[in-house]
Every structure is written in C-alpha cells, then in structure tokens.
Automatic annotation (TrEMBL):
The keyword Acetylation does not apply. CDD domains: Cas2_I_II_III. Keywords: Antiviral defense, Endonuclease, Hydrolase, Magnesium, Metal-binding, Nuclease. Its EC number is 3.1.-.-. Belongs to the CRISPR-associated endoribonuclease Cas2 protein family. This is CRISPR-associated endoribonuclease Cas2. Coiled coil: none annotated. Its cofactor is Mg(2+). GO terms for biological process: defense response to virus; maintenance of CRISPR repeat elements. InterPro entries: CRISPR_associated_Cas2, Virulence_VapD/CRISPR_Cas2. CRISPR (clustered regularly interspaced short palindromic repeat), is an adaptive immune system that provides protection against mobile genetic elements (viruses, transposable elements and conjugative plasmids). CRISPR clusters contain sequences complementary to antecedent mobile elements and target invading nucleic acids. CRISPR clusters are transcribed and processed into CRISPR RNA (crRNA). Functions as a ssRNA-specific endoribonuclease. Involved in the integration of spacer DNA into the CRISPR cassette. The gene is cas2. GO terms for molecular function: hydrolase activity; metal ion binding; RNA endonuclease activity.
Amino acid sequence: MSKAAHLYLVAYDISCPRRWKRVQKVIKGLCRRSQLSVHFCRATPARIRRLENRLHRIMHDEEDRLMVIDLGPAHTQAQLSLLNPINDIADLKAAIL
C-alpha cells in the first residue's frame, strides 16, 4: 500500500445531532470543510483507515452513512471546479464534476 498522501472527499449523513457533532469533532482535526457534511482530507491511506475506524465506532450502521472517495495523489495537478467556490479549499487541487 502506498504511503504517499492522497486527497479524499469525505461525506456523511448522520441522523442524530449528538452523533453528528461527535463526527464533526473527529473529522475537524484532519479535514477541511467544504459543505455542512462534506470535507476534503489530504492523508495517507493508513491515516484514512484510522479515521474510518474512529467514525465507525461513533456512527450507527443502520441509521448513518459515510462515504470516503480517494481522489488520487495529493501532489498531482488537477482542476478544481466549484459552483460558489470556497477559497480555503482551492489549493487542494481536486476535481469535482
């Protein structure tokens, strides 16, 4: 498994406000927020697995959803295209279509 950092899109839907706040606290340390429950993370695959494990301990499998998408190596150049762009994520070099 590669140790190089990749860019990840992390999105979730949490039904309980208390769990949602707990998930926010965990994600806040690693990711940059793009929308209410959508974040970008620059991390190694191992670090993302640890994040997923922490989130699964908080979330309820029957009620909540988590989506983690690997957008590729963090060092590659890509085009960022957002409607109403958020300036603090523009440097992440991701492509969102």
